[in-house]
Amino acid sequence: MKKHIPNAITCLNLFSGCLALYFAFQNQLVYTAYLVGIAAVFDFLDGMIARVLGAYSEIGKQLDSLADMVSFGVVPGTVMFMLLQRTGESFLGFPIETVAFFGFLITIFSALRLAKFNIDTRQTTSFIGLPTPANTIFVSSLPLILEHGDLMHYAVILNPWVLVTLTILLSYLLVAELPLFALKFKNLTWQDNSVRYIFLILSVILVVLLQFAAIPLIIVLYILLSVVKKASHSSN
Asked: Following DSSP, what letter does each residue of 147-176 receive, concatenated?
């Protein structure tokens, strides 16, 4: 019985992603963002509970990737598609309705990222490239910032140049040979987890100060701390 518990939680991740996708196509992107957060919690819990119960299975691994493809692959591409549609009437002479499909580049590179992860033995305790949940949280935070922000946020986010550039950058980061640490604690010592503790402390400070606007900055902080960690290890 216990071997089915992680898979059931993975299915809740998938269901949350399906609901997020429904609200995205209804142009209710704030609800989509909240459901992405719920899906991310389930995605974290299924792996943690599988480790606690010793309930690893090949079907669980494949199910996790399939669920992630919906929640953290199709959903962010759809959010970017819907955001691009809000930016105006045209971009570089092309109708914005056509340009908006460029957002699904994120979906394509998310699929590549998940396929690479499944066969990459280097990614057992850390990541190579931006994890799809982190990428999706970044993209899904943009509607939250718009909802709770001001005219400046609208001017910056609902700019086709900004969104197209983000789409290209995030797609690249998904498959880049960029080592990133994982939030997995084997113990609670500062020596072994200093970068994780620093990340969590700074993230809390950013959320207190900036609220929803902190979310993309936290993802950027995650990448920067990973680069610093890698550089410090290389110098040693």
From this structure: HHS-HHHHHHHT-HHHHHHHHHHHHHHHHS
Q: Which of 13-17, 192-196, 206-210, 211-215 has the lowest mean pLDDT?
A: 192-196
- 194 with 171, same domain: the answer is no
More confident residue, 149 or 141: 141
Q: Say how many C-beta atoms besides its own lie within 10 A of residue 19's C-beta.
A: 19
Both structure tokens of 199 = 């990340």
Task: Please check the confidence at residue 3 and state whether its pLDDT lies above 80.
Answer: no
Helix (H) or strand (E) holding 67: helix 58-69
Measured CA angle at 207 (ends 105, 180), to 5 deg? 50
- Cα separation, 208 vs 11, whole angstroms: 32
Domain that holds residue 201: 182-236
How many whole angstroms from its chain centre is CA 85? 21
227 in the same domain as 172: no
> 220 and 118 in one domain?
no
Number of domains in the chain: 2
What burial class does residue 178 get, using C-beta atoms within 10 Å of its C-beta: 0-12 exposed, 13-18 middle, 19+ buried? middle
Same domain, 103 and 207: no
User: Which pLDDT tens digit goes with each residue over 57-95?
Assistant: 788 889 999 999 999 999 999 999 999 999 988 898 899
